């Protein structure tokens, strides 16, 4: 039972990343009809927003500290963050320690700007082009963004630790009535799952209960009719592209303590996220979220030692096998609209 609970937790936090990226992909496809293969790059850029903020917060100057000496007895040169002159030593240390959550505030305008610029500068020219053209141009854009990150930040992963209070593990088993030290799970992975749940709920609430969201949903169902009512639906869809970029970016920001940012992390998630979108149903937001968590849990259970010993390598292909089975029996996906991807 302990192993089952652990794998379920692992599947939920892994599925959180799949669900968030797939949610953004589905927002773009559902509003603009564009298959965006650069969406994984937005996840990567979000992660590097955290790295960038950490570097900005730790910008420092060097002073000679006479109270400290090296092994030869010479005074040590000490780096002092510029922030320390403003907030003091204790507050600066706390700000730097909480750089990952603070990167959320930093990433929102950055990702919104990148998303809108991408849509206005490139994507809008491919609205009426075949999906194959959209895939080629957005995949090329993803490679360009990946190489830019590699050039400026290097090829090696860059650690981005969680705040000290969230380091370590939580005895989750005690909460469920198990004996102590039977189900130990990292704090930050639980935080990531909670963050994903809040973000997903916020996106659905925005689309469901705001006038802007209602117009967007109407435009997704019948774009021409909404346009005839005098509403600039194209402008609203541009903002939705920006929102999708923000969702992907925030998913990357909070994922950095789990997987140190590297230039190819977007590609690592991209293919699986597209599988999640197709399994959930192209254009279906609830389907993308459901499929993300379902496939995340499935992959987690397939990674159990006993399963791998019985079927070596099954954890690497189980998502694709599940996708084949689902799409053979239900071509539109779990919650897809009738007629989408059924041609």
Your description of this structure?
The protein is mainly alpha-helical. The chain has a single domain (2-58, 99-329), classed as Orthogonal Bundle (ABC transporter involved in vitamin B12 uptake, BtuC), CATH 1.10.3470. It contains 15 helices and four strands. The strands form two sheets. The chain has a two-stranded antiparallel sheet with strand order 1-2. A hairpin with a 5-residue loop joins strand 1 (60-69) and strand 2 (75-81). The longest helix has 31 residues, at 2-32.
Just give the CATH class. Answer: Mainly Alpha
Cα-based radius of gyration, to the nearest Å: 23 Å
Domain module tally = 1
Major beta sheet, strand line-up: 1-2
Instruction: Please state the structural category.
Output: mainly alpha
Question: How many helix segments?
Answer: 15
Principal-axis shape equals: globular
Helical proportion, percent range: 55-70%
The main β sheet shows up as: 2 strands, antiparallel
- The topology string of helices and strands comes to HHEEHHHHEHEHHHHHHHH
Mean pLDDT: 87
Q: What is the quaternary state of this protein?
A: single chain
CATH topology: ABC transporter involved in vitamin B12 uptake, BtuC
Q: Which ranges are low-confidence, i.e. pLDDT below 50, for 5 or more consecutive residues?
A: none
Number of strands: 4
How far apart are the first and last residues' alpha carbons, in Å? 44 Å
CATH architecture: Orthogonal Bundle
